[in-house]
Amino acid sequence: MSLLGSLVLPVVGAPMAGGVSNPLLAAAASDAGGLGMLAAGYRTPEQVAADLVHVRDLTDRPFGINLFVPRPLDRAALEPAVEDFAGRIAGEAAALGTEVGRPSWYDTDHWDAKVHLVETLAPPVVSCTFGIPGAAVVDRWKAAGCEVHLTATSVPEALAAAETGADVVVLQGMEAGGHRGTHDPSAAPEPVDHLGLLETVLPQVGVPLVVAGGVTTPGDVRRAFGAGAAGVQVGTALLLAPESGASRTYRAALRSPRHTERVLTRAFSGRVAGAVANGWTREYADAPAAFPVVDQLTKPLRKAAAEQGDLERIHVWAGSGWRAAQERPAGEIVRELAG
Ligand SMILES: Cc1cc2nc3c(=O)[nH]c(=O)nc-3n(C[C@H](O)[C@H](O)[C@H](O)COP(=O)(O)O)c2cc1C
């Protein structure tokens, strides 16, 4: 049986990279009876190790950690478009008093070191997005005692995740905030919501299914369980909690009465992500499909925008239910969602 079955509340506090899902947020979700998740994406192995130690200090309950599965880029094919994009955003960087970031074409987000770290420190759950690790890696983590959750955004991805040995498959629908976990980043993500995915995958896959994307109210949670989900993974609903690491500018953008539209866009990172529309998403909707290189180029700009309160140049990752996000302790939000 999956660890999900032993939770008081089968609510997963989504891993949210970029400093949002820090040890405080993860521990608060776990302490409430759900499953808190740390985000290892973009962090160094040393930071990840420190986060694991910190969350263990904060809670005795189960928690997990999430890794980005790297995918090599076709540099020769993508470089001209990336250089063109870098040139286009140079003026924006200057306006923000910074410079365009440097591309690192062979960046794996420290994959091998993080795989080893997970094996050594053995958090109760390890989850992955952006692809499927090899079965050998999944086996190593399982042998260390970890439960392995793999993210899928389509039926074939869900079948592949289950075949690789996932204990749980996380079905992420198009309503989700932040990056779609689509395994092939150059492909257009499937325009399917979490209930649609669940309905098709459930009869075909024998492992527990967690659904993610737009789950923001107790009604959303009831519908997901009614349709056969073993758990829900919520991100956007927790963004405004005091424990969340979301910046002041990010929080202001989520509450801005002038920002009322949500888009799926590659504009900030080169990977499709759900975000509140702003000046940047309108201007750079055609950014090249080159994650993480586009992410690296825009990173100093987004950091400066966050520091300067610039709502038009910051990435405002948000799921379809972002207007229902509440400024309340994360534990209260998790308990209320679970009803
Ligand atoms: C700010 C933000 C960062 C995210 N970062 C990650 C991540 O690092 N790894 C991951 O698997 N999913 C990430 N996601 C997606 C979530 O795991 C989840 O699929 C999504 O939040 C569910 O949709 P919701 O935001 O509508 O609840 C992120 C989502 C947000 C909003």
Automatic annotation (TrEMBL):
A single GO BP: response to toxic substance
Record's catalysed reaction(s): 3 propionate 3-nitronate + 3 O2 + H2O = 3 3-oxopropanoate + 2 nitrate + nitrite + H2O2 + 3 H(+)
Keywords annotated in UniProt: Detoxification, Flavoprotein, FMN, Monooxygenase, Oxidoreductase
Cofactor(s) demanded: FMN
Classification via Gene3D superfamilies: Aldolase class I (3.20.20.70)
One Pfam family recorded for the sequence: NMO
Taxonomy, superkingdom: Bacteria
UniProt GO molecular function: nitronate monooxygenase activity
SUPFAM superfamilies, sorted: Inosine monophosphate dehydrogenase (IMPDH)
Classification via CDD domains: NPD_like
Similarity comment: Belongs to the nitronate monooxygenase family. NMO class I subfamily.
Name of the protein: Propionate 3-nitronate monooxygenase
Organism: Serinicoccus hydrothermalis
